[in-house]
Design goal:
- The chain is mainly beta and 718 residues long.
- Among the domains are: 61 residues, Cadherins (Immunoglobulin-like, Sandwich); 102 residues, Immunoglobulin-like (Sandwich), CATH 2.60.40; 103 residues, Cadherins (Immunoglobulin-like); 98 residues, Immunoglobulin-like, CATH 2.60.40; 113 residues, Sandwich (Immunoglobulin-like), CATH 2.60.40.60.
- Helices cover 9% and strands 31% of the residues.
- The strands form eleven sheets. Strands 30, 32, 35, 36 and 37 form a five-stranded mixed β-sheet that branches. A four-stranded mixed β-sheet has the order 6-12-11-8, with no helix packed on it. A four-stranded mixed β-sheet has the order 13-19-18-15, with no helix packed on it.
- It is found in: Cell membrane.
- Its main location: membrane.
- InterPro entries: Cadherin, Cadherin-like_dom, Cadherin-like_sf, Cadherin_CS, Cadherin_Y-type_LIR, Catenin-bd_sf.
Length: 718
């Protein structure tokens, strides 16, 4: 209720209300100022409302007092029960846990005001699940209430929990939830065989490694706590079998380690032990976590194929053994109670060549063809044995026949058959190490011996030194060798083997004499001897040889052309400006031939004085020019010749020869001698080729060639 001191009760004051819920939740009587709630209030929805009230004059609408603010609080009542927001719950606890073992904590929430009365004070209790579990009434912690709860007896528990407000008093509101509790497994039970003895029947034809039976020990535990390991206790027949664990079924799988034979032994007895892999030390007091059972295996008789006395037969025979020679035999027996005869035959599917035959009854193997060890050193084939009473029962065995060697081939020297020796070699120098090869199969310890043949023993050039390790060295026996005297030496070497009968052969080695430097490096030898150590192929050697030959031919042709030039016919046209120079196709008359032109004006006293001879032809005999008195110098002719010489020297298109060579010589006995302005004293004979000797051994042949030509040059006057 609102009231203003200015309100005299005559209706002149009007009350107004504004703020939270004004007009919707709360209303005010404008005349009396009474405030009423027009709908139900919920504290959990809105615990308080803030409102503003004012008194105004009815006539003037003006406030009589300042606006005042007030708060309306909603008083709580216990209208909300506790709720488990996370329920239902799932929990687990190990089996055999002690009393008071922690399981889970639950929590209920009450929406009422915890500060006003006991509306929000919650108390927990168990409605279902006793006497196995208990709960703390204040905290809601669930714990075990009984000791040694066994998972194998009961695994799942459902517990009903109640939460009640008002401190659990009468009239309080309550909420419930469910807790599903599972006992987890621990290894508290040992494995146990359901019976003390297991009987198994196994055919004697069972394959090694195959499973012949299963046994199982029972363990009520779960998961890894129920994992069982099986072992065979050493005893009667236990070494013929082995046992493993099937991971899926935890069964013991018995497998065969060795073949069974009914005729040898009909029954086996042994013990099997089953134990847990993962032990829990808390339960050792229960007893040993293992159990033992007896396994008895009865072997069943089966109709079996024949059995060979050996798994593999190995035989030997000499090559070239006559056809029909027996080299060995195989044996197979029927070990069943009613013994049957056996027949033998060769498995031709594996051996297409019938080099051998076998006696069907006796099993003897004989040659069917002549054998050659050099062609095939070993034969490998199969022999099949079958029972006469049941041909379908067969067995197979491998037969290996080694062909022994007969010493029929003499040893031979291995490559190379040719070697070289330096001209400056010294006595005792090893120029080549040789080895031997033998086509025969060399047995262990076979040795080869080397020596000179009797006809070569008297020659002191070379000797053979046997190193007694299947190698020998070719050694020199004198100081130096001359290529000019003998370029090739043939050395017969006798090689013997140590087999019986002894075989020997005489092998001829070719020794080539080569020129070497002081270090023994070959400088000059045949192409093969020089380049073979480098590793060049035959094609490369031939190509190099051809290049050398072509180069030598070019050099010889060039020298021959320079030494044997003939006089070239250069200008024959009558319209040439040099027509005033007489051109002779043959030897002219000399100075007496003066009818065509007065050549007295062309005389060159310098050429006459130098005693020059013709350079365009090779004269047959050496002539000395006659001494003539110097002619008068003609300036016009000299200027003309110098001008033409200059034009030809600077002209890049001019021919590569002296354009004045047409009148360089006017014939034997000419008064004017040569008119050429070149006046070079250099001739082919004037060249000095001694420098070629300084270029090394590769140019020695050219130096010798030109040196000999120089010494026999007819143009050179001594």
């Amino acid at each position: 209720k609102l009231h203003s001191d200015l309100d005299k009760g005559v209706g002149t004051v009007k009350y107004t209300l504004s703020g939270d819920g004004a007009g919707t939740v709360f209303t005010i009587d404008e005349t009396t100022g009474d405030i009423h709630a027009i709908r139900s209030l919920d504290r959990e929805e809105k615990p308080f409302y803030t409102l503003r009230a004012q008194a105004v004059d009815v006539d003037t609408k003006k406030p009589l007092e300042p606006e005042s603010e007030f708060i309306i609080k909603v008083q709580d009542i216990n209208d909300n029960e506790p709720k488990f927001l996370d329920g239902p719950y799932v929990a687990s606890v190990p089996e055999m846990s002690p009393v008071g073992a922690y399981v889970l904590q639950v929590k209920a929430t009450d929406a009422d005001d915890p500060t006003y009365g006991n509306s929000a004070r919650v108390v927990y209790s168990i409605l279902q699940g006793q006497p196995y579990f208990s709960i703390d009434p204040k905290t809601g912690v669930i714990r075990t209430a009984l000791p040694n709860m066994d998972r194998e007896v009961k695994e799942q528990y459902q517990v009903l929990i109640q939460a009640k407000d008002m401190g659990g008093q009468l009239g309080g509101l309550a909420g419930t939830t469910t807790v599903n509790i599972t006992l987890t497994d621990v290894n508290d039970n040992p494995p146990r065989f359901p019976k003390s003895i297991f009987h198994l029947k196994v055919p004697e034809s069972s394959r090694v490694g195959s499973a012949i039976g299963r046994i199982r020990a029972v363990d009520p535990d779960f998961g890894k706590n129920a994992a069982i390991e099986y072992n065979i206790v050493p005893g009667d027949g236990g070494n013929l079998f082995e046992i493993t664990t099937d991971e899926n079924t935890q069964e013991g799988v018995i497998k065969l380690k060795k073949p069974l034979d009914f005729e040898t032994k009909k029954a086996y007895t042994f013990k099997v032990e089953a134990s847990n892999l993962h032990l829990d030390h808390r339960f050792h007091s229960v007893g040993p976590f293992k159990d033992t059972a007896t396994v008895r295996i009865n072997v069943l008789d089966m109709d079996e194929p024949p059995v060979f006395s050996k798994p593999v037969y190995t035989m030997e025979v000499y090559e070239d053994t006559p056809v029909g020679t027996i080299i060995g035999a195989v044996t197979a027996q029927d070990l069943d109670a009613g013994s049957s005869s056996v027949r033998y035959f060769i498995d031709w599917k594996n051996d297409g060549n019938s080099y051998f035959t076998i006696d069907a009854t006796e099993g003897t193997i004989a040659t069917n063809e002549l054998l050659d060890r050099e062609s095939t050193a070993q034969y490998n084939f199969s022999i099949i044995a079958s029972k006469v009473s049941n041909p379908l029962l067969t067995s197979k065995v491998n037969v290996i026949i080694n062909v022994l060697d007969v010493n029929e081939f003499p040893p031979e020297i291995s490559v190379p058959y040719e070697t070289s020796v330096c001209e400056n070699a010294k006595p005792g120098q090893v120029i080549q190490t040789i080895t031997a090869v033998d086509k025969d199969l060399s047995p262990a310890g076979q040795r080869f011996s080397f020596r000179l043949s009797p006809e070569a023993s008297n020659k002191p050039n070379f000797t053979v030194h046997d190193y007694r390790n299947n190698t020998a060295g070719i050694e020199t026996r004198r100081h130096g060798y001359s290529r000019r005297q003998q370029e090739l030496h043939l050395l017969p070497v006798v090689i013997e083997d140590s087999s019986y009968p002894v075989q020997s052969s005489t092998n001829t080695m070719t020794i080539r004499v080569c020129r070497c430097d002081a270090d023994g490096t070959i400088l000059s030898c045949n192409v093969e001897a020089i380049f073979l150590p480098v590793g060049l192929s035959t094609g490369a050697l031939i190509a190099i040889l051809l290049c050398v030959v072509i180069l030598l031919v070019i050099v010889v042709l060039y020298v021959a052309l320079r030494r044997q030039k003939k006089k070239d016919t250069l200008m024959t046209s009558k319209e040439d400006i040099r027509d005033n120079v007489i051109h002779y196709d043959d030897e002219g008359g000399g100075e007496e031939d003066t009818q065509a032109f007065d050549i007295g004006a062309l005389r060159n006293p310098k050429v006459i004085e130098d005693n020059k001879i013709r350079r365009d032809i090779k004269p047959d005999t050496l002539r000395f020019p006659r001494q003539r008195p110097p002619a008068e110098d003609n300036t016009d002719i000299r200027d003309f010749i110098n001008q033409r010489l200059h034009e030809n020297d600077v002209d890049p298109a001019a021919p590569p020869y002296d354009s004045l060579a047409t009148y360089a010589y006017e014939g034997n006995g000419s008064v004017a001698e040569s008119l050429s302005s070149i006046d070079s004293l250099t001739t082919e004979a004037d060249q000095d080729y001694d420098y070629l000797s300084d270029w090394g051994p590769r140019f020695k042949i050219l130096a010798d060639m030109f040196g000999e030509e120089e010494s026999y040059n007819p143009d050179k006057v001594t």
